[in-house]
Amino acid sequence: MLSRGNVLLLVVLLVQLVLLAISVATSSGGQARLVQPILIGMSAAEIDRLGFSDDLGNEVTVARSEVGWALPDADDFPVDSDKVEGLLEKIASLDTRRLVATNPANFTRLEVDDEEFRRKIRLESENASAELILGGSGGADAVYVRRAGEDNVYLGVGLNSWEFSTQISTWVDASYVNVAQDDVLEIRVENDEGQFTFVRDGASLTYAGLSEDEVLEDTKLPIILRNAASIRLLEPLGLAALDEYELAQPRVRVQVRYRKRVEVDVLAEAEDAGETTESAESSPEEATDGAEPEYAEEAYALSFGAELEDGVVLKSSDAEYYVLVRDTVFKAFNDIKRADLVKAPEAAGEADMGSTPVATPMN
User: Fold this and answer.
1) N or C: which terminus of the chain carries fewer CB neighbours within 10 A?
2) Mean pLDDT of the region 330-345
3) Are the beta carbons of 344 and 216 closer than 8 angstroms?
């Protein structure tokens, strides 16, 4: 039977053993190390500007605006705010728990060197700033990370360098022009070769400039239609019409006329017809079942300007922003020639022996 004094001694011994185990588990080289956030002194909610770059010189900067996160260098063109906030939370959760290296000789191997790195992340708040260097992968959803100006390299869990894409189009809604090809009624193109008009002929698109004895060469039409109806931007340029865009006299002009379905106000029509509001709300599908859809004609104009290093300047009459697009979009209209739209005499003769194509399918 242990005496009361022996019991107390045993308790003290157990406490000492527990403290010793904690000390060993949290020490490096015999010295205890405090686990703290790598981004100490800044919270995700305080950060109002975020920039990231790769070792090829590509760079993206986003900042808080009145409508969420946006591109300050492009007159606050909106970006995916949820995506930005999610990454800020991941950065804020990185801590010093797993120390990987302290010797600068290892920086290049881990890809966290000042010159050889995967990403440099710059974070700014009203009263503070910090820069993190993200390196290679340290495993699944893990990256080597070093705070600029310091020697300690940590393993950051829950983050990858590739999540900070330096392609602006991955951060924005890149759909600049988006109309269903089947709804396009007419395309008019003006380039150095002249003016060209393409019109809908039933379910097809055809060239309106054919004479009676000419046969359509339809291979160009799918490319023209596709690029007139759907254009994705590479990056937004801003709201101002800068002289360097050379849009005072556009290199190519395109006018697109299309049909747009009219959204029917089921409740208003039901009230006009004397029906109860409850019946219209309960079955809006039934209220429009069997009715022919209504369409209204709309139009937009595309003006192509200067060819810059990364693409061609474009302005749509339906959009506020000037943007940069791939040169393939510009060439789809700039390269149109009448000779390419009319079959050569021999080819036309061969076509007459069979069925003569006069139009090209929309899809």
Assistant:
1) N
2) 93
3) no
Where helices occur in 257-358 by DSSP H, the ranges are 266-272, 277-282, 284-288, 327-334, 345-353
- In tens, the pLDDT along 238-250 reads 999 999 999 999 9
Predicted confidence at residue 29, as pLDDT, reads: 44
Two tokens, residue 234: 């590479």
C-alpha distance across the termini of the chain, in Å: 93
Task: Supply 283's token pair.
Answer: 């079955």
Alpha helices in 26-131 (DSSP H): 81-93, 107-110
Check if the beta carbon of residue 185 is closer than 8 Å to that of residue 318.
no
The sign of the dihedral angle between the CA atoms of 80, 85, 86, 92 is: positive
Distant-in-sequence, close-in-space partners of 144: CB < 8 Å, separation ≥ 6: 100, 110, 111, 112, 134, 135, 136, 137, 138, 153, 154, 155, 156
Query: What gap in Å lies between CA 195 and CA 234, rounded to an integer?
Result: 28
Token pair in block for residue 222: 């799918």
> Which residue is it, tokens 């849009």?
247
Name residues whose C-beta falls within 8 Å of residue 324's C-beta, 6 or more positions apart in sequence: 233, 234, 235, 236, 237, 308, 310, 311, 312, 313, 314
Beta pairing class for 59-65 and 49-53: antiparallel
Tell me which H or E stretch contains 321: none
